[in-house]
Specification:
- The chain has helices spanning about 65-80, 105-120, 125-140, 145-155, 185-200, 200-225, 230-245, 250-260, 285-295, and strands spanning about 1-15, 25-40, 45-50, 55-60, 85-95, 155-160, 165, 175-180, 265-270, 275-280, 300-305.
- The chain is α+β, with helices and mostly antiparallel strands and about 300 residues long.
- The chain folds into two domains: about 1-160, 2-Layer Sandwich (Ribosomal Protein S5, domain 2); about 170-305, GHMP kinase, C-terminal domain (Alpha-Beta Plaits, 2-Layer Sandwich).
- The strands form two sheets. Strands 1, 2, 3, 4, 5, 6 and 7 form a seven-stranded mixed beta sheet that branches. Strands 9-10-8-11 form a four-stranded antiparallel beta sheet.
- A hairpin with a 4-residue loop joins strand 3 (about 45-50) and strand 4 (about 55-60).
- Helix 5 packs across helix 6 (about 200-225).
- It is globular.
- The chain starts with a strand and ends with a strand.
- The mean pLDDT is about 95.
- It binds (3R)-3-hydroxy-3-methyl-5-(phosphonooxy)pentanoic acid (PMV).
């Protein structure tokens, strides 16, 4: 049996503006993960078992545009294998779907690794990342590539679309609380809504994206210099710009406000928005209080994660 794991991720700063060429910072979240196992089989064909999304089917019966099917096909194609051996592909994930934690990219990355190993040709990170990016297009339409990159390399990433991958150092570790609104939201729709705003007045929105870009640069410097408390106000400022892009929601606002009231140093939505997750920066001793406040404000799930 061949098995691979991939973590979830959060975007610390820069979502949406990253689609327009500005930088963004993202980190892996090891507390949640996708697991893929590939087993030999006696029955012909490639059977996919993905109970989390209620999928139990043979590959050839699935539409080629279904991300899991398309990833499997792309691995065979990349390895020049035209006769598929009989296999069972088992996919399990503890990453909530459509919530900004990178569930789709994590499944793709784990699947590419487990399957290519099972076929005797484990693929290098660069290829894993490139194939996972193709699948991201099926989920998101015009993805920046940030999710597949941070999940493939499982390290903090300073990401600029179409640029070589750049990781960054975390001088002083810091703690983030992730609160899930429980509202699943389509990244594709949120990205589309921002695109409409931009099309209607691109000079104005280019200015907003520039402001996000400056926040990202300041945040990177603060993280690399260990000046973690500076990140709180930067999160608040980034959240205000995301509100302006219309990608917040009443549920996100409730959680962001609750975290700030409970003593978080700053808070913002994370990922595509309009639902999904928010993040809050907390003092090392503030974890219980902020987590309790988020639950009381309606968070479906709360994860505490250490960065660095
Ligand atoms: O919803 P997520 O976490 O997959 O976030 C996507 C981030 C965006 O910047 C909104 C889109 C992208 O492709 O970068």
């Amino acid at each position: 049996m061949n098995r691979a794991f991939a973590p979830g991720k959060i975007i610390l700063f820069g979502e949406h503006a990253v689609v327009y060429g500005r930088p963004a910072l993202a980190v892996p979240v090891m507390q949640v993960q996708a697991k893929v196992e590939v087993l030999d089989s006696n029955a012909p064909g490639i059977w996919i078992e993905a109970p989390d999304v209620n999928l139990h089917a043979e590959l050839s019966t699935l539409p080629a545009t279904l991300p899991i099917a398309s990833v499997i096909q792309s691995v065979f194609q990349h390895l020049n294998i035209s006769r598929f051996p009989p296999l069972i592909v088992r996919v399990n994930s503890s990453i909530p779907v459509a919530s900004g934690l990178g569930s789709g990219a994590a499944v793709s990355v784990a699947l590419i690794r487990a399957l290519s190993s099972a076929l005797g040709c484990p693929l290098p990170d660069e290829t894993v990342n490139a194939l996972a990016y193709e699948a991201e297009k099926l989920y998101h339409g015009t993805p920046s590539g940030i999710d597949n990159t941070v999940i493939t390399y499982a390290r903090p990433v300073y990401f600029v679309k179409n640029q070589p991958i750049e990781t960054f150092q975390v001088k002083e570790p810091f703690t983030i609380v992730i609160g899930d609104t429980g509202v699943s939201a389509s990244t594709k729709e949120a990205v589309g809504a921002v695109r409409k705003l931009w099309e209607a007045n691109s000079p104005y929105w280019e200015g907003v994206f520039d402001a996000v870009g400056r926040i990202v640069q300041q945040a990177r410097r603060a993280i690399e210099c260990g000046e973690v408390t500076l990140l709180g106000p930067l999160m608040d400022a980034n959240h205000a710009l995301l509100q302006e892009m219309t990608v917040s929601s009443p549920e996100l606002e409730r959680l962001v406000a609750a975290a700030r009231l409970a003593g978080a140093l700053g808070a913002k939505l994370s990922g595509g928005g309009r639902g999904g997750n928010m993040i809050a920066l907390i003092r090392p001793d503030g974890q219980e209080q902020v987590a309790a406040a988020l639950r009381a404000a309606g968070a479906r799930n709360v994860i505490v994660t250490q960065v660095g």
